[in-house]
Amino acid sequence: MKQGLLINVEKCVGCGGCVMACKRHNGTGRGVYWCNVITKEEGTYPNVRKVMLPVGCQHCENAPCVRACPTGASHYDEEGNVQVDFDKCIGCRMCMGACPYHARSFNWGSTVDNPHYEGQPPTAYDEACAERHPVGVVEKCTRCVDLTRAGKVPACVQTCPAEARVFGDLDDPDSEISRKINDLHAKCLMEEYGTKPSVYYVGLE
Amino acid sequence: MDQKRFPNTLIAVFAVLTAIGVGCWIYQLAVGLQVTGMSNMNSWGTYIIMFMFFVGLSAGGLIVASSAHVFNIDKFKKVALPAVIVSTVSICLAAMFVLVDLGGFTKVWRLLSGPNFESPLMWDVVVISLYLAINILDIVFITRGEEHKVKVLSCYALPTAILVHSVTAWIFGLQISRTWYTAIMAPIFVASACDSGLALLLLCLMVLETRGLFATGKALFKSLSGLLAVFIAVDAYLIGCELLTMGYPGAGDAAALSIMTSGATAPFFWFEIVFGLLVPFVILVVSKNREKRGLIAVASVLVVLGVLCKRIWLLLTAFAAPYATGASVVSDAMAADALSFGAVGAFYTPTLMEIAIVIGVLSLGVLLFMLLSNALFGKKQTASTAHAASDIASQEA
Predict the structure, then answer these.
(1) Does B122 touch chain A (CB under 8 A)?
(2) I need a labelling partner for B388 at 20 to 30 A (CA). Which of A115, A125, B175, B298 fits?
(3) Cβ-contact A53, A9 below 8 angstroms
(4) pLDDT in tens, A67-125
(5) How many CB pairs under 8 A join A and B?
(6) Nearest by CB to A137, which of B103, B328, B329?
(7) Measured between CB atoms, which of B101, B122, B176 is closest to A193?
(8) Chain A residues lying within 8 Å of B177, measured CB to CB
């Protein structure tokens, strides 16, 4: 079993639903985006267009972050995903320098000190989130391991209204994701680095 | 010249600065690294700049000290002890700068309980520990006058000193997606260790001589500063090679190069090129100037500051140009994502708290240097230093 994600950029409307679903499910702090959508406007009026690129941890098979981690806090789990063990993370941020995808964020302070409503006292939600996001460790997309191990799909996949995201088993050649990767000629981000991501994109230029 | 120790008032001043730094560090431990100017976009800052800087200062000193014994350069052997003291203090500071940068200082034992030897940071932990042990042994052997043991140890000290700064370079140089990713990174680090380390040693020797703690002598200052000129030239050559390789294709790293030459890190880059390499080289390449204490001091200060600037542009340019190497639309979009949900891309400025912690660690270094010098040179003037002191008195008369 090797979990993978296919993102069809041609279908993405840039609504940011995945970003919000991720934040709601994982309770990440203000300014932390395990799932993000990079948007960019190109050209000059009237020849303009908007480019969308959903990004996040690429859960690489040859992950530079796992290599760089001095304590083994960043590791591969049974599904082939890259996870961070907060107990082992000493917060050196080697992995952040190593990751080509800018997928990792560091908990610079507590979510209680930085509530979601800036300038307001922390809400009960902020306080509940603080326990899940200890200060001084590096974190990133877990591919919603709590959901997938319960037989569900990650929050971003569940939410996407354009059905631009397909989650599944890369080891199974008959799975929807494997077929679509083949049929739609999906590619990975920055393949030249040889990181072998398990996130595939359709419609990249 | 009658004072044979660093005075207690000076020691007290630095002790207070150290205490303030420790206080700030405890506060940082309590609330997290949010007190610094670092961000997810610029995930390393002043602490790591100082870490690189001090590993270099340390390696440079020991490379000179151990070369004297390995290659039997008799006249340089005399400064071996001050060189090793500078080296020991510097490596302690380097280690401290990494420790204050950690998000999980209390979990630092995890490095020992579950080391991942694929990580260059783990290599650095091993090499710095070994290096510190060699430094301390070196001090013991030199002060006991065990010449043979010093010679044998120096044969291990020299490669370890080169390795310690190479490994530090590899922490950065092996990160495939950053502008640091270049095979020349380790040689650049070693070259800049040699010039900055020797320059710091010259400055420390001047301080020790003014305090009457250790006499270096005019002739030795002249030949050491001649060596410094050579080191500066090697450093400049390697930087030139790297810049040409970055800029020539007009693609890829050329974007990072333009950040260095005309962007956010340009002031540091040009300071190093002009005042850190060019000016000191021009000063020291003239034989007559190497006889003037003031000019040697100016050149040395410039070299040390120049290498500090190098550490700054080296580290921060990579964060300012994070996706310069992959020139596809994708990377382009990632670099310029002002419209994204999580806006990133702010440039780094250290906070007061960060600066106070840095001053605290630096003060601890000055304190350690003064206490070690007082202990090793202050109590009893050895026959040779007393002799050298009278030499200088007669020379300068």
Answers:
(1) yes
(2) B298
(3) yes
(4) 999 999 999 999 999 999 999 999 999 999 999 888 899 999 998 888 888 888 998 88
(5) 170
(6) B103
(7) B176
(8) 64, 98-100, 190, 193
Mutation pick from A40, A60, A84, A191 vs chain B, by most beta carbons of B within 10 Å, is: A40
Q: Is the pLDDT of residue B117 over 80?
A: yes
pLDDT attached to residue B331:
44
pLDDT tens per residue, range A153-196: 999 999 999 999 999 999 999 999 999 999 999 999 888 889 99
Closest CA–CA distance from residue B276 to any residue of chain A (Å): 27
Q: Do residue A190 and residue B326 have CB atoms under 8 angstroms apart?
A: yes
Collapsing DSSP to helix, strand or coil, A169 comes out as: strand
Q: What is the mean pLDDT of chain B?
A: 87
More confident residue, B325 or A126: A126
Contact A177, A169 (CB under 8 A): yes
**Predicted local distance difference test score (pLDDT) of residue A100:** 87
Instruction: Please name the residues in contact with B246: beta carbons below 8 A apart, sequence gap of 6 or more.
Output: B179, B252, B253, B254, B256, B257
Residues 102-121 of B with CB under 8 A from A: 102-105, 107-108, 110-111, 114-116, 118-121
Write the secondary structure of B175-209 as one string of H (helix), E (strand) and C (coil). CCCCCCCCCCHHHHHHHHHHHHHHHHHHHHHHHHH
The separation between the first and the last C-alpha atoms of chain A, rounded to the nearest angstrom, is 30
Euclidean distance between CA atoms A202 and B56, whole angstroms:
47
Peptide bond into B120 cis (omega under 30): no
Measured in angstroms, the CA of A91 and the nearest CA of chain B are apart by 4
pLDDT digits (tens, 9 = 90+) for B265-297: 889 999 999 999 999 999 999 999 999 999 999
Determine whether domain A3-202 maps to CATH 3.30.450.20: no
Whether complex ipTM tops 0.95: no
Question: Would you tell me how many other CB atoms lie within 10 Å of the CB of residue B318?
Answer: 23
pLDDT tens digits for range B326-381: 333 344 445 444 333 433 344 688 899 999 999 999 999 999 999 999 888 875 44
Domains along chain B? 38-349 (1.20.1630.10)
CB atoms within 10 A of CB B181: 16
Q: pLDDT class for A128, splitting at 50, 70, 90?
A: confident
Q: Is B351 on the interface with A (CB under 8 A)?
A: no
Distance from CA of B339 to the nearest CA of A (A): 6
Q: Does A136 touch chain B (CB under 8 A)?
A: yes
A41 touches chain B (CB under 8 A): yes
Tens-place pLDDT, residues B44-96: 999 999 999 999 999 988 898 899 899 988 889 889 999 999 999 999 999 99
Of B110, B115, B339, the CB nearest to A40: B339
CA-nearest of B101, B105, B93, B99 to B55 is B93
